[in-house]
Amino acid sequence: MTTIKKIKDIGAVGGGDIIGSGMAAIFWFYLASQIEPAQYGEIHWFLGIAGIFSGIALFGTVNTLTVYTAKNVQIQSTLNLLSIIASLVLSLIVIILFPSFYSVDIGIILIAYVINTLAIGDLLGRKQFGIYSRYTLIQKFLTLVLGLSFYYFFGYEAILFALALSYSLHFKRIYSIFKQVKIDFKLVRTRFGFIINNYLVSILSISIGQADKIVVAPILGFTILGNYNLALQIINIMMIFPGIFYKYLLPQESTGVQNKKSKIVVIVFSGIITIFGIFIAPVLINEFFPKFIEAIDAIKIMSMVVVPATIALILESEFLGNEKSKIVIIGTGASLCTLVIGMIVLGSMWGIEGVAFSLIFSTLIKTGFYAMAKQFKLV
Known about the structure:
Blueprint: H1 3-34, H2 37-57, H3 62-70, H4 76-97, H5 103-125, H6 129-154, H7 159-165, H8 169-180, H9 185-189, H10 192-220, H11 222-238, H12 240-254, H13 260-279, H14 281-288, H15 295-302, H16 306-321, H17 326-350, H18 352-375
């Protein structure tokens, strides 16, 4: 693959992700400037619940769909069917388990998360990076428009439902997949090991992304959770480019394409991003979000996660692209355990700073394990 083609493909993925993330950031940062940290934390706590249950429903994970679609294995409709049925069942369970004003909205956004993931896995696997970019832009635009509209007309309590509606376009994509690809459970049976391993990886990865929301609130309260989530959203912005590269890299690794020079460039760039997070981002918080002043120290600490997280994504794409998912299960599982224990222990001792350090330690555990696995050929 030529360098120009690589740049075009990465640019196609990146264009949608960067602009889309910018629109989403405008919405979340504006919302943070309008409501109290406790309300901000409450919204993210419920989103965390929806995120974890959607991970349980996703038998067809984004990585599984990306890998098999890239290999031209016609398994999409089968995995989509299993995941959608599971999401419907789990949405009812969530509504029953969390009886509140938000319960129905949590169930709806759970289903929306699943549909979104299934559509993205198919697009990336087909290497239709331009279409993926358009889908991302439309969804983030709807997040901004619907989110702000629902907030002004119905209050912050209506935001979860607005976010669920932003994924409505993806339903059309899934419907078209069902029309194009026949359901065949034999394809699942012959690839059950990799699918299950990837399923476990997905649950663990989603749990890492959502566990902080679930754990922090009971220990430190919604106000600290609100501050932590604002800090985390800035870190997520810093991770946009490494995340874009991972989405490009996984289907390439699945078809045997090497990208050694590109990987080095991305790691160096992540180091530059880290410097921005440590020195610039706290100034922005102090200037524009004075109610979230407790987020400043968290951002300084959490910025140091960008480089090891980038290396972990690169190594993970190599393992998954070669269908060697067991090592990813072990690394992600160890990372999740470190994160949860660290947040409980260090969070109780040092508050938001302890939670921030837990994120770094958990990422270092995973990255170090991946590096050893590659060095000593454990897989």
